[in-house]
Give the backbone structure.
Amino acid sequence: MHPTLQPGDGLVAVRAGRPKTGQLRVFPDPRHSRRFLVKRVGGVRRTETGVSFEALSDNPDAPGVTDSRTFGWVPAAGSYRVLVRVPGAGN
């Protein structure tokens, strides 16, 4: 699968709703809280502590890729739903 986002793309994201399979979500990297990741929701589950989601890379074979296969499921609290991709906005 080709990546949905390219270097330099901009995003419009809002803290809204529960994650749904297939959505793009922005969230703090569980290993480096000052860095944010953008991943596709692979699955959603509810536990007694809240809702969490599986964060999957669109290109899992890319060098240096990191996603839920590395750091586990992500709490939905503190994540943002990507609404719009703006191609090349960061260039």
Observations:
- Helices lie at 68-71.
- The radius of gyration is 13 Å.
